[in-house]
Amino acid sequence: MAIRNTIVEFHPLLIAVATILISSCVQPLEIKTDWDEPPVVVHCVLKRIAVDLYKDAQYTTQTVELCYASAAGQDGFPNVQEAEVAIHCKESGETYTFINEGNGVWSSEFTPDYDCTYSLEIKIPGRETITAETRVPEKVSLFMPLGVMTPDD
Description:
Elements: H1 2-22, E1 40-44, E2 61-68, E3 84-89, E4 95-97, E5 99-102, E6 105-109, E7 116-123, E8 130-136, E9 142-144, E10 147-149
Antiparallel strand pairs: 1-2, 2-6, 3-4, 3-7, 5-6, 7-8, 9-10
């Protein structure tokens, strides 16, 4: 009985604490989108092998997608129409120039090398140059129940 009385005594206190924790202040969030020029959104993923393990193909077409950020309340993202896009491999010295395919998509034909550092450079007229860098890791072996598989198998 003593335990039951203790719970009953704290019951109003628990309700008060829960009410304070659950309730919160609501404050309007103002997102400033009064840019002089909207920022550029870049989507680039270097792909080395096909995702489908049953295919024996490697990716040779690499793509870069470019669009402008949209303001709050706007639908869609306007595509970048004009840009110079290139990727440079630091180890081999190769530079791959991308061709504008339209609709904000640029493409180039190459398969990234393992253990190589790539730097992306995007020049849009009237804007600062956009740069990024990534490294393709060394070949990784996957251990599967039926044996060892490497990405090129």
